[in-house]
Amino acid sequence: MTHDLAIIIVSTNEARWLTPCLSTIFAQAGNIGIDVVIADNESTDGTAGLVERDFQKARVVSCQNRGFSHANNRGLLTTDARYVLFLNPDTEILEGTFEDLVRAMDERPEVGLAGVCQLTADGALFPTVRRFPNALRLLGDALGAERLPRRPRWLGERELDLALYDQELSCDWTSGSFLFARREALESAGYLDERFFIYSEETDLCLRIKRSGWDVRHLPTMTILHHAEKAGISPKMTAQDAFTRIQYMKKHFSPVHRAVYRAILGLRYAARAVPLGPRGGERSAAARAALRVLCRLDEPPFGPPPQLALAPREVPPPLPELRSVTSARG
């Protein structure tokens, strides 16, 4: 049976979040066939037992903990759906149905990947529409330019005009907590690059999808809740973010550009290492951890990236003919 949608959720000891996540997924499915896959990353908190006991319509794929990208790919390899959603476990579906989202994508055959509206735990709209990173945008971020009332939109990665989020928008990339991808786009661009243990994998995927001739879009068809701040400010994860930014630059930019980018990134974290304001001590510790990785004083937080992985294709095949929901379901 070919499903309309596969939903892949990576759990690394995330059992506490899975009950609200899975409950809202099945409640908001609509009249389509969905295949819900939990990629269990060697959890020790009873993730597999919880899913098998309480959510028998979902299934568990066990895998070694080699990172977020690796686990998503392992889940993806077990599916046959026309669309694939890579979804964080700490999310809940608030508005809209997956049937609506599949229909919206079927009506837009040029769109290879889409994101939706995301709210934080306090109800604020989270800016998920992004521009690809480069040295100039990083400089704008380091100087705080993206928060200036009249700053140029290109001087920063994030789209902070939240009034735009209630309309459809083309974008460079969108948040990895909700990546709704067309199967044909993944096959033409390649799967998640497992050399990115966690972070920057979504930026890399969106870049490859766009280079393969597809559009990336923000669709306000659905709204989700994302508990993004649940872990607070983590020195380890801040250092990982810094490391993967350099990984991304090495993969896609010239030596000169990435050297400039690394220098600006170092200046940004050096400024943040000064403990100012509320939670200044936490931010300072996180910035110092990032600086140590950037200066190669510490190893990458999750170890050196693998040399071999499910790598992206170098030359994508021609775009295939697309099917509608009606033709796919008969």
Structure description:
By secondary structure, this protein is an alpha/beta fold. The protein folds into two domains: 5-231, Spore Coat Polysaccharide Biosynthesis Protein SpsA, Chain A; 235-294. It is 37% helix and 18% strand. Strands 1, 2, 3, 4, 5, 6, 7, 8 and 9 form a nine-stranded mixed β-sheet that branches. Mean pLDDT is 91; it is low at 311-330.
Write the layout of secondary structure elements.
Layout (H helix, E strand, L loop, with lengths): L4 E7 L3 H13 L6 E8 L5 H8 L3 E6 L4 H9 L6 E5 L3 E5 L2 H9 L4 E9 L15 H8 L26 E2 L7 E5 H7 L11 H11 L3 E12 L8 H18 L2 H18 L7 H15 L30 H5 L1
Parallel strand pairs: 1-2, 1-4, 2-3, 6-9
Antiparallel strand pairs: 4-8, 5-9, 6-8, 7-9
Helix pairs in contact: 5-9, 6-7, 8-9, 8-10, 9-10
In short:
The chain is an alpha/beta fold and 330 residues long. The protein has helices at residues 15-27, 47-54, 68-76, 98-106, 135-142, 183-189, 201-211, 235-252, 255-272, 280-294, 325-329; strands at residues 5-11, 34-41, 58-63, 83-87, 91-95, 111-119, 169-170, 178-182, 215-226. Strands 1, 2, 3, 4, 5, 6, 7, 8 and 9 form a 9-stranded mixed beta sheet that branches.
